[in-house]
Amino acid sequence: MQTGFRKIKLEVLKKLNQDKSSKGSIDKPIVPLVDKINQLPDFVTTSSCSGRISIVKEKEGMTKHRKAWLFKSHSKVCIEDLRGISLIEEKCSLKFESVILHIATKNVDKGLRMLKLAKEAGWKKSGIISVKDNKVVLECSSTEILAMPFSKSNRIIANDEMLEEFCKEANEKLERAHKKIERFLTEIEKNKDFLSED
């Protein structure tokens, strides 16, 4: 019977594989990085996002997990994409949120090694968020964010100039986020022995 972190990793990978086959939930740009990390014996990814541009319903008192996305894209967008959504009565925001990756590992030392590589790859907003027996969880992210009011009362309140500028900046940030995914992958490939040694 598997015990400790090995058992945790097998359970996570089982769920991950189910998600990939049924929903395709792993964003394509981050799949090579997720696969590479999951090949390392002492690490496993628990969630990921390659960066997204979204329109989000905002309600006072709602937590992040209860927000409703009216639009979500993990690739570049144009103003026509944003103007094509169905509007609602509630206030909505237009957002870019950067790449984020949660990684579990077996101890703090291993976590610190992975964090070193993440920060060298430009994932500056990274750290350990949980320490438990047999599992340490890292949150690795970048700093590219962008947000603005989009609509309320069933009408878009942002004008075309604002939307064009948002699309330009968000697309540039998304491109930078995807390059950081590639850099993180390169750092891991160069430092596999560093991550594997006890």
Compact overview of the structure:
The chain has 198 residues and is of the alpha+beta class. It contains six helices and nine strands, in the order H-H-E-E-E-H-E-E-H-E-E-E-E-H-H. It has a single domain, classed as 2-Layer Sandwich (SSo0622-like fold), CATH 3.30.1960.10.
Descriptive report:
By secondary structure, the protein is α+β, with helices and mostly antiparallel strands. The protein has one domain (about 5-195): tRNA wybutosine-synthesizing-like (SSo0622-like fold). It has helices at about 5-20, 30-40, 80-85, 110-120, 160-190, 190-195; strands at about 45-50, 50-55, 70-75, 90-95, 100-105, 125-130, 135-140, 145-150, 155. A five-stranded antiparallel β-sheet has the order 3-2-4-8-9, covered by helices on one side. Strands 1-5-7-6 form a four-stranded antiparallel β-sheet, with helices on both faces. The longest helix has about 30 residues, at about 160-190. It is elongated and about 55 Å long.
Name of the CATH superfamily: tRNA wybutosine-synthesizing-like
Q: Judging by the overall fold, what is the CATH architecture?
A: 2-Layer Sandwich
Low-confidence stretches: none
What's the β-strand tally? 9
What's the CATH topology name? SSo0622-like fold
| Rg value | 19 Å
Strand portion, in percent? Answer: 25-35%
Q: At the first level of CATH, what is the class? A: Alpha Beta
In what order do the strands lie side by side in the largest sheet?
A: 3-2-4-8-9
Give the helix level as a range of percent: 40-55%
* Averaged pLDDT: 89
Domain module tally: 1
H/E series, N to C?
Answer: HHEEEHEEHEEEEHH
Major sheet characteristics: 5 strands, antiparallel
Which structural category fits the helices and strands? alpha+beta
Distance between the termini: 23 Å
**Count of DSSP-assigned helices:** 6
